[in-house]
Amino acid sequence: MAIAWTRDLNTGIDVIDQQHQRIVDYINQLEHAIKQRNQNVVGQVLGELVDYTLSHFAFEESLQEQVGYQFAKPHKAVHNIFATRVAKYQERHKAGEDIAEQLHGMLATWLVHHIKRDDMAYVAEVKTSMSSIVQDKKVGSWLSRSLGSFFK
């Protein structure tokens, strides 16, 4: 079943919400590939999903670190556990196993729970820090600093 983006998934941090919506798009593309019964497309979508999600994790972790989020390390650990889990699915897929439906279910469930539980936990702190950072014009915007530190 496709994931529908609902208001309760919005963190209120536009760049994070846009990234989450892109991950939802990939998960929905995976569902489409499953319906086509095309393992090549499943593999392609899975690769793109993993690459994009890892980039999102790095961005989110950089943002948390920059604002001094006290639970940044445990949040990163959750990301690492997820990445390891998905890598195992990738290995199984490459070995010829049909993991697509099982993977789709796991991804859809995990993402929604992760946003609602883990990500919503840092939103207030990040927004507060962003407000004070944005007011300090000499230092530059929080987004440009986050992107700068992310792409160094």
Give an overview in words.
By secondary structure, this protein is an all-alpha fold. It has one domain: Hemerythrin-like (Four Helix Bundle (Hemerythrin (Met), subunit A)), CATH 1.20.120.50. Helix content is about 80%, strand content about 0%. The protein has 5 helices and no strands. The radius of gyration is 17 Å and the shape is elongated.
Radius of gyration: 17 Å
* Tally of separate helices: 5
The CATH superfamily is: Hemerythrin-like
In this structure, how is the largest beta sheet organized? none
Order of helices and strands: HHHHH
Structural class determined from secondary elements? mainly alpha
Q: How many domain modules?
A: 1
Task: Summarize the amount of helix as a percent range.
Answer: over 70%
Shape-level CATH architecture: Up-down Bundle
What is the CATH top level name?
Mainly Alpha
Low-confidence stretches: none
Ends apart, CA distance between termini: 39 Å
* Count of individual beta strands: 0
Mean pLDDT figure: 86
The name CATH uses for the topology is Four Helix Bundle (Hemerythrin (Met), subunit A)
What shape does the CA trace take? elongated
Strand percent estimate: under 5%
Question: How is the topology of this model organized?
Answer:
Layout: H1 14-36, H2 39-67, H3 72-94, H4 100-135, H5 142-150
Helix pairs in contact: 1-2, 1-4, 2-3, 2-4, 2-5, 3-4
